[in-house]
Amino acid sequence: MNLATGVIPARHSSQRFPGKPLALIHGKPMIQRVYEQAKKATLCEQIIIATDDEKIFHAAQAFGADVWMTSSQHNSGTERVAEIAEKIQCPIIINIQGDEPLLQGQMIDDLIIALQDENIAVATLATKIKDFTLIDDKNIVKVVTDKNDFALYFSRSPLPFQPTDYFLQHIGIYGYQRDFLLKFGQLPESRLEKTEKLEQLRILENGYKIKVVETPFKTLSVDSPQDILKVEDILKTVSN
User: What range does the domain containing 50 cover?
Assistant: First the structure.
């Protein structure tokens, strides 16, 4: 079994939510909650927080995380993760989004299991959603797959048109074969990536495949301060 290294890219600047990684959720910085949840994965030999911000760096050090400073010139979290991948030799790298405080360790392990097949260069997660009122939400990324569970397309728009049973919500956690991640870091931004503001489309536009692993777990990506309140309400329900 090939183990993995998990990397959580974190930046302080954000147009919609500046300082998001350090936003408190029931008294803990969000980046700490993500880190602690990621540490529950059994198939990761280490979890690294990668940042270009000194505030995040010192906050991560304070709660005992393994945190590395990275370049401030990256255009995406994946490019930041690729910088870490250049410095380590682990064969599988997991890109763990820093705004997923409801992450479960099993979600990471499922990606690592999928990537034991070295013919799969990239794997990501999706979950079935039956509440069709959510399909128009641009913050919920939708994905459609082929019969072998490889992604056909990702979009912020409704996808597919008028589903009758469910749609697949993409969960932005990615697993990579290290060699492919280093190659991805060299690819220029693509047209659809810029249009949808979804960096995974760079992979599809360049002719590579993304394996989609279905998970029963639901998450809530924090995109705004209002989402913090939603996460806190969910955590209250779970703890009660």
Answer: 4-124+171-218
Q: Decide if 236 is inside a domain.
A: no
Which one is predicted more confidently, 74 or 149? 149
Write the pLDDT tens digit of every residue in 139-189.
Answer: 899 999 999 999 999 999 999 998 999 999 999 999 999 999 999 878 888
Give 227-234 contacts, CB < 8 A, sequence gap 24+: 228/23, 228/24, 228/25, 228/30, 231/25, 231/101, 231/102, 232/25, 232/26, 234/102
CA distances from 65 to 33, 38, 62, 222 (A): 11, 11, 8, 21
CATH code, domain with 9: 3.90.550.10
- The pLDDT value given to residue 14: 67
Whether 237 maps to a domain, the answer reads no
DSSP, collapsed to helix, strand or coil, labels residue 84 as: helix
The whole-number average pLDDT for the span 195-212 is 94
Helix (H) or strand (E) holding 168: strand 167-177
Q: Are 78 and 95 in contact (CB under 8 A)?
A: yes
pTM confidence score: 0.93
Domain count for the chain, please give it: 1
Domain presence at residue 157: no
Amino acid identity for residue 38 in this structure = A
Per-residue pLDDT at 196: 92
Who contacts 57 (Cβ-Cβ below 8 Å, separation ≥6)? 51, 67, 69
